[in-house]
TrEMBL record:
First-listed, main subcellular location of the protein, grouped into a coarse class: cytoplasm
UniProt keyword rRNA-binding present: no
Coiled coil: none
Domain Poly-beta-hydroxybutyrate polymerase N-terminal positions: 112-285
Domain AB hydrolase-1: 310-526
Keyword Acyltransferase attached: yes
Family matches, as InterPro entries: AB_hydrolase_1 (IPR000073), AB_hydrolase_fold (IPR029058), PHA/PHB_synthase (IPR051321), PHA_synth_I (IPR010963), PhaC_N (IPR010941)
Alphabetical UniProt keywords: Acyltransferase, Cytoplasm, Transferase
Organism: Litchfieldella rifensis
Name recorded for this polypeptide: PHA/PHB synthase family protein
Location(s), subcellular: Cytoplasm
Length: 611
């Protein structure tokens, strides 16, 4: 069963209350330690020492960095001199503050860095100086790393700089109980109960990861699929071994003639598009008068080891299109693909083009890569050595655990997604808040061995999708240039998974110039930006020059959500209006209520115990 939600220690707790909290924490600590140790032993027994990213690659990168500093002592000395100059300025600045002056900080706090948000970092002279000293050190360290690695090849330099940043993030004074003023204050006021609670939280996270740390990012007790998240009314109208197909109930009397099929990623679950009602893209689309279908992918286990990328096309997108046609009686439809779901959709469209299948009349791509020549920060995890490392693990397990991918993605934003939770969960002893986006983010899925190997090698490593006919799927050579239907691309400004410039280049691979729109924020928030929201905004420009930066220079910025603009575009491909359709039909009677049973399968430790 799920662990009871721990009560976080509060300043000023009375002795009896503190005693109760100590007892509660000790009980949780004992139970969590036992489960973590047992999980570690089980992992050792099956010879599972796999972690992602590969610790050997990180060690090699840092060793290479040390060698570069030895080979360039003059540059290292220059960096050190600049650092001491910064320290001198900081000392002088601190002395002026001691004398009652109010000079400007030597190192301005980054407003986006939540690790130093507490008042103690600004109001306490010692901690303010400590923060500035760290920021000066980090700035000069990263500058020095950049300078001494100029002679390395691109791939090695990317790894060295990435792990140098990870090291500096780990050494931030906010990450230690004795150098974080908020933690010190909590420890004094609770008599150390926060640290005991934090240790219990740590043991429980180690237990969830079977001896490896799996940081809890969201309180799952406050969120439940089908109750307050993924609650848009609908029915599962079809299922096979790979997916369930959900059709949503209409919210208007008339709907677009052409139904809309959404192909979500299977690296995470479809309900990123159906979070709480206020942020649900699916609910909004239904309310706009669309008949919406969405694929809910299975969460595979070792039985799916030989499932190929082709199977996702045949049993996934193509089969879903067949069912949509039979349920609605319509011969044509519109489509959306998100992330890897967009990559699959593009492959499906090219497959259909090769066979003269013209039923798809428009395609929308959310943060989808078709050109993998530049994949941004993810390139640090992509090379022959690391792919072989993953393949060896998948050969034993039959799949790649989504938790490993989540760990790698978290490292790309380690200050927020790792160290922010280390401070909150382990040093302050608090439970994370219930947050639909982070709840979804922690609800990971597995990747079948054969499919994942194909995807990593053919897309990321070799970029063969960008070459006409370089890959074949389900008996057809894939040529994106043969896809000539209207298309709409949505990329996001700060996407660290699908960089917008790469999405832009991929849009040029289609045989017809699409609409391209750039949303604010990142891979998720830039897409899940509800109509009516004043946040982020977006850029648009009617032409599509080859150079993405030239496009951006000519683009116009608009406030708010891009959803209404996309809806106006889609209306031109809707085929008119018909009476609203209820889910299912004579041939496909509803199987169960949305969100269905496939999405309910979780892969964390509590799920394996049947809860």
């Amino acid at each position: 069963m799920n662990d009871p939600k721990p009560s976080s220690p509060k300043p000023g707790d009375q002795p009896d209350e503190l005693a109760r909290r100590y007892a509660e924490a000790l009980e949780r600590l004992s139970a969590g330690s036992s489960r973590a140790w047992q999980g570690w032993l089980e992992r050792q027994a099956r010879g599972d020492f796999f972690t992602l990213p590969d610790p050997a690659v990180a060690a090699k990168a840092l060793t290479s960095l040390g060698q570069q500093f030895l080979l360039h002592p003059q540059r290292a000395l220059e960096v050190q001199q600049q650092l001491w100059q910064g320290y001198t300025s900081l000392w002088q600045n601190t002395a002026r503050r001691l004398s009652g002056e109010a000079p400007s900080p030597v190192a301005q706090p980054d407003p986006k860095d939540r690790r130093f948000k507490g008042k103690g970092w600004e109001e306490n002279l010692f901690f303010d100086a400590l923060r500035q000293a760290y920021q000066l050190t980090a700035e000069q360290w990263l500058k020095g790393v950049h300078e001494v690695t100029e002679e390395l090849d691109h791939d090695e330099r990317v790894k060295v700089e990435f792990y140098a940043r990870q090291l500096m993030d780990a050494l931030a004074p906010s990450n230690f109980a004795t150098s974080n003023p908020e933690v010190i204050e909590a420890t004094v006021h609770t008599g150390g109960a926060n640290l005991l609670q934090g240790l219990a939280n740590l043991m429980e996270d180690l237990a969830r990861g079977e001896g490896l740390l799996r940081i809890k990012q969201s309180d799952s007790a406050g969120l439940e699929l089908g109750k307050n998240i993924a609650v848009t009314p609908g029915k599962v109208v079809y299922q096979n071994e790979l997916m369930q197909l959900i059709q949503y109930a209409p919210a208007t009397e008339a709907v677009d003639r052409r139904p809309l099929l959404i192909v979500p990623p299977w690296i995470n679950k479809f309900y990123i598009l159906d979070l709480t009602p206020q942020r649900s893209f699916i609910r909004w689309a239904v309310e706009q008068g669309m008949t919406v279908f969405v694929i809910s992918w299975v969460n595979p286990d070792e039985r799916y080891a030989e499932v190929a990328f082709d199977d996702y096309l045949i049993q996934g997108t193509l089969k879903a299109m067949d069912v949509v046609a039979e349920v609605t009686g319509e011969e044509t439809l519109n489509t959306i693909g998100y992330c890897i779901g967009g990559t699959l959709l593009a492959c499906t469209l090219a497959h259909q083009a090769a066979r003269g299948d013209e039923r798809v009349r428009s395609a929308t791509f959310f943060t989808s890569l078709l050109d993998f020549s530049e994949v941004g920060p993810l390139e640090v995890f992509i090379d022959e050595e690391q792919i072989r490392y993953m393949e060896q693990h998948m050969a034993r397990r039959g799949y790649l655990e989504g938790t490993h991918l989540a760990n790698a993605f978290n490292l790309l934003q380690s200050a927020d997604l790792i160290w922010g939770f280390v401070i909150n969960n382990y040093l302050l002893g608090r439970a994370p808040q219930a947050f639909d986006l982070l709840y979804w983010n922690s609800d990971s899925t597995r990747m079948p061995r054969r499919m994942q190997s194909f995807y990593l090698r053919n897309m990321y490593l070799e970029n063969r999708l960008a070459e006409p006919g370089a890959i074949s799927l389900a008996g057809e050579a894939i040529d994106l240039g043969k896809v000539r239907i209207p298309a709409f691309f949505v990329a996001t400004e700060k996407d660290h998974i699908a960089p917008w410039q790469s999405c832009y280049r991929g849009a040029h691979l289609l045989g017809r110039r699409p609409r391209f729109l750039l949303g604010g924020s990142g891979h998720i928030a830039g897409v899940i930006n509800p109509a009516g929201s004043p946040k982020y905004g977006y850029w648009s420009y009617g032409r599509l020059p080859r150079d993405p930066e030239r496009w951006l220079a000519s683009a116009t910025h608009h406030p708010g959500s891009w959803w209404p603009e996309w809806r106006n575009w889609l209306k031109r491909h809707s085929g008119g209006q018909v009476a609203a359709r209820e889910p299912g039909g004579e041939r496909f009677p509803p199987i169960e209520d949305a969100p269905g049973s496939y999405v309910q399968v979780r892969v964390d430790a509590t799920a394996r115990t049947g809860t």
